[in-house]
């Protein structure tokens, strides 16, 4: 057996001789020193390439994990914000699709009104913001309604393509969303 030690963890192995063959073993086993060196270099290069490729793939996964962590944190923050808005005092039944205006009294109490600051300017009360109650009971700030509507329109178009294509059909989704 012929071995060439590359590093501590690697060894280049040559093909073992096959004693059943009727070939001249001396002729088959003759190797030039350059061939063995080239084999060792090829193994080292392959090891480096595999290491670089693996590290690159792992770094892509790490970036995806960070992105997912950030999305999870954003979802938790949004959930807390929605819960706070649902906890605001209100003397009427809120209906999805409608816009409501949040105020804060000098006592600290937050409450919803149907009247905007343009329609009503209560003394000693601070206007906090206007929100649309969505059908999933989340809240969208007025300045983000257009963006939210574009996302919903895109999702509905994807659903329609899937339904039009039938079961099991390939569906191409266009991720080029305008203004989102």
Give an overview of the whole structure.
It is elongated, with a radius of gyration of 34 Å. The protein has helices at 25-28, 33-87, 145-165; strands at residues 3-7, 10-13, 99-105, 110-113, 125-133, 139-141. The model has no long low-confidence stretch (mean pLDDT 84). With 180 residues, the chain is of the alpha+beta class. It contains three helices and six strands; from the N terminus they run E-E-H-H-E-E-E-E-H.
Task: List strands and helices in order, with pairings.
Blueprint: E1 3-7, E2 10-13, H1 25-28, H2 33-87, E3 99-105, E4 110-113, E5 125-133, E6 139-141, H3 145-165
Antiparallel strand pairs: 1-2, 3-4, 3-5, 5-6
Give a short summary of the structure.
This protein has helices at residues 25-28, 33-87, 145-165, and strands at 3-7, 10-13, 99-105, 110-113, 125-133, 139-141. The chain has 180 residues and is an alpha+beta fold.
Tell me what portion of residues adopts beta-strand conformation.
Answer: 15-25%
Largest sheet: 4 strands, antiparallel
Query: Helix share of residues?
Result: 40-55%
Low-confidence stretches: none
Instruction: Categorize the overall geometry.
Output: elongated
How many DSSP E strands?
6
Order of helices and strands: EEHHEEEEH
Structural class, from helix and strand content?
alpha+beta
Radius of gyration: 34 Å
Beginning-to-end CA distance, first to last residue = 65 Å
Overall pLDDT metric: 84
- Main β-sheet, spatial strand arrangement: 4-3-5-6
The DSSP helix count reads 3
């Amino acid at each position: 057996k012929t071995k060439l030690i590359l590093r501590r963890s690697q060894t280049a192995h040559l093909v073992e001789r096959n004693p059943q063959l009727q070939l001249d073993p001396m002729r088959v086993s003759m190797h030039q020193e350059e061939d063995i060196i080239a084999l060792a270099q090829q193994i080292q290069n392959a090891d480096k390439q595999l290491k670089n490729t693996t590290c690159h793939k792992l770094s892509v996964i790490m970036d995806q994990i960070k992105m997912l962590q950030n999305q999870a944190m954003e979802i938790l923050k949004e959930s807390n914000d929605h819960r706070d808005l649902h906890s605001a005092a209100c003397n009427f039944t809120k209906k999805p699709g409608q816009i409501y205006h949040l105020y804060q009294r000098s006592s600290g109490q937050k409450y919803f009104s149907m009247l905007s600051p343009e329609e009503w300017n209560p003394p000693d009360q601070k206007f906090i913001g206007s929100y649309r109650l969505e059908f999933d009971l989340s809240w969208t700030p007025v300045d983000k309604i257009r963006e939210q509507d574009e996302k919903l329109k895109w999702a509905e178009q994807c659903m329609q393509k899937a339904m039009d294509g039938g079961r099991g059909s390939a569906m191409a989704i266009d991720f080029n969303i305008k203004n989102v």
